[in-house]
Design brief:
Helices cover about 60% and strands about 10% of the residues.
Length: about 475
């Protein structure tokens, strides 16, 4: 009934407005033209000239100012607002109370401009959202290490940009045809549920992963991989991570049940982020394969360097071992100890670029030959630098021949300006060289090597590093002495 009423009343209203405009235009025409003609005719028949002129002026005045002018002013108002809107200016509502098509036009214009302003505000809000998200992720990219940290930061910043409560990233296990939790983020710091597995097709996440289409629905924290999450439902947005039209995972974002509903713009934004995540993960996998191959090649080169010189067999591994032990004795963390070991293994890889007649010369090098030999840290740096996972050891390799007094090479760095890892490598490298036979000299005894390190502490070596290493040697000697006493 309501529908029928609305369809019949609209034409009646429209007819009423049309009649009103026609009537007012006819009335204005009558006052401004027809009445003066009649008055002129009446004057010719004897009506007083003065009275006739008064009637003509009054009639024209009433026709224009009383009837025609308000309609013209209303049209001009609408025209001005349309011009302003067409050049992007903010326009106010047209205040027209005409009970006809002009009034209806003004009201329609007001509705259109109001809708446009709302759309513009929504667009601005979406733009701000995108800028905020890109800014957050851009800042995160500057400091990220590895794909896992990057994914964590993307999920966190996506949740923050959408003003949501929590989010998660789940990936497809192709063999088992199920989703597992890769990373999560929540405002209250809840941990991910690493045990959660969702079969493809089950629940919101499983359906999105199987169908490859986004979904806005209701969901709980536990269903998106949040450990110890409450069971209260919230507003859930789930979009697929697609690579070559194949879903490789899903991104889920949750808002409180009383929060703002997710919009198409939110969905489109997270879909775009999901596509970029999928591409980033694929690129990371490909780069990892290339990097792994490159590292294997570098390790082979390091072995090739030692194979050329029988006197240096095992030297690099021992330097790595000593360097890691020094790091442990100095209280450095496990990550730094691993880096020191890697740097020790690779510290002389640049010697692959030194001619054999110089590298294997059984007598001391000439000044010119020594300058060539001093290039090996720079060559080593150039070999290792392209490997992202070895970036932190590049400086150690470059500067492991610097001296504490600034007389070393290649940079002539002094004291604390020399990277700590390089100062540690310097002691480890020199000690192993001292206690190993060389083409141009016999090995030193451990006691003589210790005396030499003490003598050059503060000159060639960092005294703190020397002290830490000598403690390691002393502890080893004590253990050996205890064994011999038994």
């Amino acid at each position: 009934m309501a529908t029928e009423h609305s369809t019949t009343s609209a034409p009646q209203s429209q007819v009423k407005y049309e009649q009103s405009v026609e009537y007012r235009l006819a009335l204005a025409f009558g006052f401004m033209v027809f009445v003066p003609i009649v008055v002129v005719w009446a004057i010719s028949k004897g009506l007083g000239w003065s009275l006739g002129m008064v009637i003509i002026v009054a009639s024209a005045f009433l026709g224009y100012f009383g009837i025609a002018r308000p309609m013209l002013r209303a049209v001009l108002k609408i025209t001005e607002r349309v011009k302003a809107a067409s050049i992007g200016e903010r326009v106010e509502a047209v205040d027209v109370k005409e009970p006809n098509e002009i009034g209806e036009l003004a009201r329609a214009f007001n509705r259109i401009t109001q809708d446009l302003e709302e759309k513009v505000e929504e667009l601005k809000s979406s733009q701000q959202l995108v800028k905020k998200l890109l800014s957050r992720i851009g800042t995160a990219l500057v400091s990220y290490e590895g794909i896992d940290n990057l994914l964590n930061l993307i999920v966190e910043n996506t949740v923050a940009a959408l003003e949501a409560q929590m989010g998660s990233l789940m990936l497809v296990d192709g063999e088992k045809q199920e989703l597992y939790v890769k990373t999560t983020w929540s405002s209250n710091g809840q941990a991910p549920n690493a045990e959660l597995r969702v079969k493809l097709g089950d629940g919101v996440a499983g359906w999105v992963a199987r169908e490859g289409r986004p979904m806005r629905a209701k969901g709980t924290p536990s269903s998106m991989g949040i450990a110890n999450g409450h069971s209260e439902e919230g507003l859930l947005l789930c979009v697929p991570l697609k690579l070559r039209d194949q879903a490789i995972g899903v991104v889920l974002v949750l808002r409180p049940a009383n929060g703002k509903a997710f919009t198409e713009d939110d969905e489109a934004l997270v879909e775009s982020i999901g596509s970029q995540i999928a591409v980033a993960m694929e690129n990371y996998r490909l780069n990892l394969d290339v990097e792994r191959t490159y590292i294997e090649t570098i390790m082979a080169l390091a072995l090739a360097v030692e194979a050329k010189d029988p006197y240096s067999a095992g030297h690099s591994k021992r330097v790595g071992f000593y360097a890691a032990k020094i790091g442990e004795a100095m209280g450095l963390d496990g990550e730094m100890q691993r880096l020191l070991n890697d740097a020790g293994v690779l510290h002389d890889i640049g010697k692959i670029g030194i001619k054999d007649e110089i590298l294997l010369k059984p007598t001391p090098l000439t000044p010119d030959e020594d300058k060539i030999m001093q290039q090996h840290p720079l060559i080593g740096e150039a070999i290792v630098k392209p490997v992202r996972s070895l970036q932190k050891v590049v400086a150690f390799i470059r500067h492991h021949h610097e001296r504490y007094d600034g007389a070393g090479y290649p940079g002539g760095l002094k004291a604390e300006d020399i990277p700590l890892g390089a100062r540690i490598l310097s002691v480890a490298d020199t000690y192993d060289a001292m206690v190993t036979d060389r083409p141009y000299r016999k090995r030193l005894t451990i006691e003589d090597a210790k005396v030499e390190l003490k003598k050059l502490a503060g000159v060639q070596y960092d005294p703190t590093v020397v002290d830490a290493f000598l403690k390691i040697v002393a502890e080893k000697e004590a253990r050996l002495a205890n064994k011999s006493d038994r």
